[in-house]
Amino acid sequence: MLFSIEGKRMDKVPHNDKFLFYYKQMDKVKLGLIIDHLTNIIENEEVFNSSYLPPKHWKGSVFYPIYELIQDKQTSAFFYGQLLWKLIMEDDKKWMFQQADNTLGKLYFLVKRPELLTG
98 and 36 in contact (C-beta within 8 Å)? Predict the structure, then answer.
């Protein structure tokens, strides 16, 4: 589950229509590898900045198929962020996010006292 820093539960991916447009076109095997990679981070980390998960240069990384499909750096990065958002939103643990300093990404962190949140 994903909550804003103000405590509002997030229940949809931002700009979901654009996200689904590319999501449906992704090669399912390559998408599965990306999802596995991100799920591993979600399951094993308590705090992370979304901007620092992919390498600076995606070629040769698990994330490169996103760029291969979209062919635009900014749109590829946006899709990656939406995918990560979706996976965290669907996770059983309660997460919060805020805009990360000095990056376009989000800072995600586990809620230490989830009983204080609704949802």
Answer: no
CB atoms within 10 A of CB 100: 16
Domain that holds residue 101: 2-116
CA dist 74 to 2, 6, 70, Å?
A: 24, 27, 10
Q: Within 13 Å and on the Cβ side, how many CA atoms surround 48? A: 18
Helix axes 16-23, 73-90, angle to 10 degrees: 100
Q: Tens digits of per-residue pLDDT, 47-102? A: 999 999 999 899 999 999 999 999 999 999 999 999 999 999 999 999 999 987 77
Q: How far apart are CA 68 and CA 5, in angstroms?
A: 34
Total domains, the chain: 1
d(CA 69, CA 5): 33
β-pairing verdict for 106-110 and 47-49: antiparallel
> Mean pLDDT over all residues of the chain?
93
